[in-house]
Amino acid sequence: ARDDKYGADALRWYFFASSPPGNVRRFAEDMVSEVTRRFLLTLWNVYSFFVNYANIDRFSPGAEGALEQSELDRWIISELNQLITDVDTALGSYDPTGAGRKIEGFVDVLSNWYVRRSRRRFWKSENDADKLSAYTTLYQCLVALSKLMAPFTPFLADELYQNLVGSVQSEPESVHLTDFPVADATKIDKQLAADTRLAMRTSSLGRAARSQAGIKVRQPLAKLLVKVTSERQKRAIRRLAYQVLEEVNVKQLDIVDAMPVTEWPLVSEGDLMVMLDTDITPELAAEGMAREIVRRLQTMRRSAGFDIADHITT
Question: What is the spatial distance between Cα 41 and Cα 141, in angstroms, rounded to a whole number?
Answer without folding.
Answer: 16
